[in-house]
Design goal:
- The chain is an alpha/beta fold.
- It has a domain at 1-157: Ribonuclease Z/Hydroxyacylglutathione hydrolase-like (Metallo-beta-lactamase, Chain A, 4-Layer Sandwich), CATH 3.60.15.
- It is 38% helix and 19% strand.
- The chain contains 8 helices and 12 strands.
- The chain has helices at 2-20, 74-87, 102-105, 120-141, 211-222, 241-263, 267-271, 287-304; strands at residues 29-32, 35-38, 56-60, 65-68, 92-96, 117-118, 155-156, 160-164, 167-174, 181-186, 191-199, 228-233.
- The strands form 3 sheets. The chain has a 5-stranded mixed beta sheet with strand order 1-2-3-4-5, with no helix packed on it.
- A hairpin with a 4-residue loop joins strand 10 and strand 11 (191-199).
- Helix 6 (241-263) crosses helix 8.
- The longest helix has 23 residues, at 241-263.
- It starts with a helix and ends in an 8-residue tail after the last helix.
Length: 312
């Protein structure tokens, strides 16, 4: 099956992908002394961007490097590791996957000699869903995925403080975007890697979302002593904008779905809901809104009907 998907994806990529020579052209950008981001396209998975839509990053300490997310493919992980080597000859000390979604960990193959770290729940999710992600990513991205195999994190990390090479890193175990969302704050620079909890100028993704829990986690993020926020998708900000924007959209989405369920609307009626400003300018609208409703609305319907198995 995957061979067929691989061939179909490669055909869909066409000459544009061939011309790109599968080079992600990764350009680390310094956010503070020793702290770098590698920005992805503010878009959806597609061959034109090699399915590179995530912001990854790394922190150079006196002792070595902490890598934050490894991207959507083996090719990405290899090119990310090469980009880090161009910045520093220091060894890589830690590779962190902030959640279970494929673009957070599909580059782990490039770090197989080290093994990636993730929360235990994230590790379980990566193992359970890796094969399905793999098929879908081959379908969406074609030849960019060549030789990529879902490679879950092999090392467990827990919330707390981590002292590495003169830097103090705070790791938080939150949830809402997925059941287990890891967040990293570099207290030395004030750079916050918010993972999937924060989006910026892009509609949030929701396949594993619990909106009320997510909103609580955003409140916890907003209380942290950060200077710069690196969202999972969208522009980096020297302000609370990614947190504030994500919170605003999720509150609207939650209220919209609750109201629709109370009124007994069917899913097609919900999908016809007018999108207010400022969300109409977000990337990947209306496609991602359609996914939001498809993922979440059945749960709201069940709750409105008094189903005891539904979640708040």
């Amino acid at each position: 099956m995957r061979t067929f998907l691989f061939g179909l994806g490669a055909w869909l990529c066409g000459l544009a992908v061939q011309a790109a020579d599968f080079d992600y052209a990764l350009k680390p950008r310094a956010l503070a002394a020793g702290v770098y981001v590698i920005e992805g396209a503010v878009a959806d998975f597609e061959p034109a961007n090699g399915c590179n839509i995530i912001n990854t990053g790394f922190i150079v300490t006196e002792a070595g490097v902490v890598v934050i997310n490894t991207g959507p493919s083996k090719r990405y992980g290899e090119q990310q590791r090469a980009a880090i080597r161009r910045i520093t000859p220091l060894p890589i000390l830690r590779v962190l996957n902030l959640n279970l979604h494929p673009d957070y960990f599909f580059g782990n193959q490039a770090y197989a000699d080290l093994g990636a770290y993730a929360l235990p729940g994230t590790q379980r999710g990566q193992k359970a869903e890796g094969a399905a992600y793999e098929n879908n990513m081959y379908r969406l991205c074609g030849d960019w995925m060549r030789d990529t195999v879902a490679t879950p994190a092999t090392r467990a990390v827990e919330a707390g403080h981590l002292q590495l090479g003169g830097r103090k890193l705070t790791l938080l175990h939150l949830s809402g975007h997925t059941p287990d969302d890891l967040v990293l704050l570099d207290e030395t620079s004030g750079v916050l890697f918010a993972g999937g909890l924060a989006f910026h100028a892009r509609v949030p993704t929701t396949p594993h979302a619990d909106l009320p829990v997510w909103l609580q986690s955003l409140d916890q993020l907003a209380a942290l002593p950060f200077r710069i926020v690196v969202p999972s998708h969208g522009p980096v900000a020297a302000s609370e904008a990614p947190i504030t924007q994500t919170r605003s959209y999720l509150r609207w989405l939650d209220a919209t779905l609750r109201d629709a369920a109370t009124r007994g609307l069917d899913i097609n009626e919900v999908l016809a809901t007018p999108i207010p400003e400022p969300y109409r300018s977000f990337a990947v609208l209306p496609t991602e809104f359609m996914r939001n409703v498809t993922h979440l609305y059945p749960r709201y319907e069940q709750k409105a009907l008094g189903d005891p198995l539904s979640r708040d």
